[in-house]
Design goal:
Elements (H helix, E strand, L loop, with lengths): L2 H10 L9 E5 L3 E7 L9 E8 L10 E2 L4 E7 L1 E6 L2 E6 L3 E4 L7 E4 L6 E8 L4 E5 L4 E5 L9 E5 L12
Antiparallel strand pairs: 1-2, 2-3, 3-10, 4-11, 5-8, 5-10, 6-7, 6-9, 11-12, 12-13
Keywords: Metal-binding
InterPro entries: Cupin_2, GPI/OXD, RmlC-like_jellyroll, RmlC_Cupin_sf
Pfam family, one: Cupin_2
Length: about 170
């Protein structure tokens, strides 16, 4: 492979079977291994993650996005998509499309007795507000400078006055 071809491959190609997975565990509901695939690639507006959920576990809390759209591709196993108050079965080969907005809070749950592996693909819209209906939290994130990201996670509650803390 030429130097140019190697540079292109490094910027454009990732193999989810070859990237080390990070383990995230929080008893009793969450146990996932994942790898962010788009990091350090040429991608500007797309994010991608490979997720592996253990039997009976979830990867992230039930949530909704105000700006980002997501797509999930089930690579291996079976599970359940919790979405808009419903439980929908998922199996290998299924492709799930989740638009932004309060109509589609969602979460993937491995309701089987084997591993569930799926790709998560999202637009990287910023700024982003993400809400967590089960816990009453929200997350605000975004930055014009990737070296200095902005992120805050809070519970809904009394707001500050517009002029609070201003000279």
């Amino acid at each position: 492979m030429s130097d140019h071809a190697a540079t292109l491959a490094a910027a454009l190609i990732r193999n989810f079977n070859e990237i080390p997975l990070t383990h995230r565990f929080r008893d009793p509901n969450y146990d996932t291994r994942f790898a962010r695939l788009a990091r350090d690639t040429a991608a500007q507006k797309l994010g991608a993650t490979i997720d592996v959920l253990e039997p009976g576990k979830r990867g992230c809390p039930y949530h909704l996005h105000h700006a980002q759209e997501e797509m999930f591709i089930v690579v291996e196993g079976e599970g359940t998509l919790r979405v808009a108050g419903e439980m929908l079965p998922l199996k290998a080969g299924d492709v799930v499309f989740i638009p932004a907005g309060p109509e589609y809070p969602h979460q993937i749950i491995n309701t089987s007795d084997a591993q569930l592996k799926y790709l998560s693909i999202s637009t990287l819209e910023a700024p982003e507000i993400c809400e967590y209906p089960d816990s009453g939290k929200y997350m605000a994130e975004g930055s014009l400078d990737k070296s200095d990201p902005f992120e805050v996670i809070e519970r809904k509650g009394p707001s500050l006055d517009y002029w609070d803390g201003e000279p």
